[in-house]
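Wed. Picked up where I left off yesterday with Neur_chan_LBD domain-containing protein. The coffee machine is broken again, so keeping this brief.
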Amino acid sequence: MLSLNIQLTPSVAEMEERYEAEYRLREDLFNRYDGSVPNKHGQGLELIPIMTIDHIRTLKDDKGTMTMSVTFVFTWMDERMMWNATQYTGIRRLSFNRFEYGLLWVPVINLADIPSHGKPQDVFGNHDLDITINDNGIVRATIKALVTVPCYFTFGDWPNDYQNCSLTLMTPYFADEFRFAKWGAAESARFLQERATDVEDFELIGVESTSYFLYLGMDVVYDFKELV
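Structure written out below (tokens, as returned):
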């Protein structure tokens, strides 16, 4: 028995019906949307952050910097963005670019300690930004960026020396209102090891991430429970 699945091009009428349903869905979602931080039963919002290093472009030991292409993926829940797909011709997902998401709340996430920048850079200010919203209220933002981060170079153990480059993501929110989930991570793309060795003979040997809170803007606290 041979079974073939052939995807047919939707008719003009079907495309018009979907367009009208999507337009109506967007109107319904944002009709009473206030743009505030999503807050589930007063527990505060937990956002899952993932950063993937796509390619190391340059390493400048004389300036103590590394420039790399990265992809940020931020995922969070916004119950105000939930809908019944059967009421909108089966639409289960909406997509937005940085010019379209309008009133949708997105977090302020700054890149701190960036050389040659006097103030932190907002990650969501990048042009290469795509946002998808699912009918269950899950929002996912994908951002591609080129960032230059500070590095601490020491060559005393050359050629087996170890260099450390750091990147800090900071938010202006209070910990009971917004925080990064502990199961977020930073990782390298599968093909990075081969590509990184082409950059001035440096090799990426690992990526680590740590979450912390600033108590009263000074003391570093690693567990949110210590603040409550």
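Quick read: The longest strand covers residues 65-82.
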